[in-house]
Amino acid sequence: MSVHQQETVPVGQPGQRLSVRGTVAAVSCNDVYSFTKPVRDEIVLIAGLGVAGDVHAGVTVRHRSRVAADPDQPNLRQVHLIRSELHDELSEAGYEVPPGGLGENVTTSGIDLLALPVGTVLRFGPAPAAAGAACSAPGRAAGPSPAGSVTAGSVTAGSVTAGPADGAAAVVAVAAHATLDHSTATAVAALAARLASEQSAGAPTGESRDFRPAIVVTGLRNPCQQINRYRPGLLKRVLVREDDGSVSRRAGVMAVVLRGGPIRPGTEIHVELPGLPHLPLDRV
Asked: Are 80 and 252 in contact (CB under 8 A)?
């Protein structure tokens, strides 16, 4: 089956189904604070840290508003993803927003990111059975991954060349010493469960059988007034009050890097849902 012949699986509410495969439409990063991020040929994920060379890479929070509130909070926003279908919807409403325009690192196609349960794993690249030797190299899901070489037009790792020694587990460790709100605590618990699952599913030595770059989805981006400064009136399109009074946050999802490696436009994305019960994404 091709990537564009989407498989679906049940998720969340009765009758709701979700694509389990999609593609990377674009990748972006920036080494300075700015609302938008320039598109690159390639970005490199670093386990437990984020995108190599990106200003938001870190074990603790890096977004300035979060740093001002509590710099010791775990960074559950290492990677920002937005579906390209949102760009199409905004264009129809008169707002031209290119990939990276809302500050995302990965623009996806074919996956309803907002419908994913917390703790969902997104793996980049062909499944191991199809990838053959490319997925047979040793490594650890929770451990560091080398940044590797970066193609022309991408950002080099700069001063960030490797993640913490224990990878994404370092984020969970930071959380253990912080005061967490409910949505953050839920996301951390889901991340910890995923780390435990990766290790139990691996070889006797604790090595994972799947060595593709991977991230764990932790929650929703909480859109703010910066969006209106970027495109006047845009905030109401991505922060919507529904008829039942609930708030719909449509500006993408956040994730922590489970396993490092390069990703590029055109790369397959494979969705792995967590165990039941599935919990909806909340702001992080």
From this structure: yes
The reply to whether the predicted model has a pTM over 0.85 is: no
Beta bridge partners of 256: 216
Determine which of 16-25, 134-143, 212-221, 272-281 has the lowest per-residue pLDDT on average: 134-143
Do residues 172 and 191 touch, judged by C-beta distance below 8 A? yes
- Comparing 36-45, 135-144, 162-171, the range with the smallest average pLDDT is 135-144
Q: Which residue type does 228 have? A: N
CA–CA gap between residue 8 and residue 20 (Å, rounded): 6
Q: Which domains does the chain have, with CATH numbers?
A: 8-272 (2.40.33.20)
- Which of 40-44, 120-124, 154-158, 181-185 is least confident? 154-158
What are the distances in angstroms from CA 219 to CA 2, 79, 91, 233, 274? 28, 11, 25, 24, 14
| Half-sphere exposure (Cβ direction) of 174: Cα atoms closer than 13 Å | 23
CA atoms within 13 A on the CB side of 247: 13
Q: How far apart are the first and last CA of the chain?
A: 35
Mean pLDDT across 192-206? 74
